[in-house]
Design brief:
By secondary structure, the protein is an alpha+beta fold. The protein has a single domain, classed as Alpha-Beta Plaits, CATH 3.30.70. The protein is built from three helices and four strands. The chain is globular, with a radius of gyration of 14 Å. The model has no long low-confidence stretch (mean pLDDT 97).
């Protein structure tokens, strides 16, 4: 499994439409055989900061599988208006340090 973290800086006046865009995009993630789960979180201290965590079956499953699938185009169309506000997009592997 690979974890993708995407950080956004979204002005408060765009927050509602941003979250609505990801509700739409989440339908594509739900349909993807490569997506194992996801979560969009908003900072309490700095509400303009969002973090999206997506669990992929593998890096290849994300970069080749999902991106070449029928689900990718509508996903991208939903979130494309916010790509300029993307601060970071990285893939990570989980370590053994975690709660029981």
């Amino acid at each position: 499994m690979v974890l993708e973290y995407i950080r956004y800086g979204i002005p408060p006046e765009q927050a509602e439409e941003f979250e609505a865009a990801y509700r739409t995009a989440s339908e594509c993630l739900d349909q993807s055989e490569h997506c194992l789960g996801y979560e969009l979180a908003r900072s309490v201290e700095a509400p303009e900061n969002y973090v999206l965590r997506i669990e992929w079956d593998s890096l290849d499953g994300h970069e080749r599988g999902f991106r070449s699938s029928a689900e990718f185009r509508p996903f991208l169309a939903a979130v494309e208006p916010y790509l300029e506000q993307l601060a970071e997009m990285r893939h990570y592997e989980a370590t053994t340090v975690q709660s029981q």
